[in-house]
Amino acid sequence: MSIHKLRPEKGRPQSRGWSRVGALGLAGVSLFVASEAAFAAVGGSRHRQQSSPVKREPAPKPPQGPLLAVISLANQHVNIYGSGGHMLNSRISTGQPGHRTPTGVFSVIQKQRYHESNIYSGAPMPYMQRITWSGIAMHEGVVPNYPASHGCIRLPGSFASHLFGVTKVGMRVVIAPGDVSPQEITHTSLFVPRPAKVETGINAGAAPVQVASNGAATEPVVPYDPLKAAEELKALAARRVGEAAKAVAAALAESQARSAEANRAADTLRLAEAAKAAADARLEAAKRDLATASNPETETAAKTKVATLEAAALEAGKERDRVKAEENAKSDAAFAAVAAYKTAEAGKAAAEAAAKDAARKTEPVSVFISRKEGKLFVRQAFDPVLEVPVTIQNADQPLGTHVFTAMAVKAGGGAMNWVVVTIPSSGVIDAPQPRHGKVRNRGEDDGRVVTAAVSRPTSAGSALDRISIPKEAAERISELLLPGASLIVSDYGISHETGKGTDFVVLTH
Fold first, then answer.
1. Looking at domain 2-192+363-507, what is its CATH homologous superfamily?
2. Please, which pLDDT band fits residue 312 given cuts at 50, 70 and 90?
3. Residue 191 needs a FRET pair 20 to 30 A away by CA distance; which of 150, 178, 347, 411 works?
């Protein structure tokens, strides 16, 4: 096991603007570099304490790969990391006493370019990125150099608009009491991507397995690309939905045609039965006339008529039987066609369910291990997937709260580049506070004692050393593993904020 800190960006700016670290920025993403002059050009000022209206630039193209937002309450800053390292940072304003911003693990669960608060009298919240359904969000707002919000994370206007353009729903957001940053980590307990066990020919992205002379499988010649495999499965599932829809349409047309034929045959049968009934009635009348014949002439005539009508009734019976056999055949065909249509409908429903599942598997998986509950939970695309017990050594001792994120597939495939952020447990947040209408610099004594009660965190590697995950669960998670996947290890349980339409929310304060 080894842990390496991500290469720090030299001279990370702590101004009110925001910047891109070119050497570590995500490839292909054009990010605005805000010098003091550039910040002033978009309405900023070194002496102003609130955002001014600015001209909105077109939304930038979202970067490829996962993003991770790390917010420091003490420093009133947010830093954005991508697969290449640090990308962006900005000053922020978080919750004030009485309306504190919670610390813990969150994710973006909703985005709205323009949003009005349903808690605070319709207050405008441009570029809103919600992280809890109870009302905590990142959004554009007034950003002094101290906590001033009702719990949300306020962002300067230019940064808020740019960040809105590059993030996606599901982006992990870590809120810590102090300044923390991701560290690269390798550990044998961290998941590695592996092809899912699916039917032959489905997992098109899986690498072919080579067999050595001793019969043992060797390393694949072509690196396994889990994202490509997931996308190919999704495309194949979508094609199958299309094929199933065509089958349903064809089965419906067939059932309608067979039902129409059966209906016509039923109408014909009713006519044939009516004709037979009429022939039988005429025959019965003729037989009554024969029985009451009063002389030889009328009796002879009556016998002739009865014979004629008997022949007619016999033919009517034969015709009815022929039509009835035909109606039975057409009715059976109609029932079979309707059954085939129902089968096709069921096949379409199954294909749609499979497509939904395949689409879900193109989203990063989230794993949460709770010491409090002694369980491992899995969610993907905000939906619960798995829940199993885990074994934790010295379960009465803290693990800490650690957020592991798979940032990218390693060159050559077969493993992930993982980073980890450890969140210290916290008490009172040491954040700059206003003093007589001015901003108090950190460390300046104004007669108030504002301290940070931060405990020494357990190392991320040590926490993983103590956890044993069932083999079947680990294999299933590995089959779902994509860049952006996360593993949260915490002493806490699942927060009440975790629910429908959310990833795991872990509250540490």
1. L,D-transpeptidase catalytic domain-like (2.40.440.10)
2. very high
3. 178
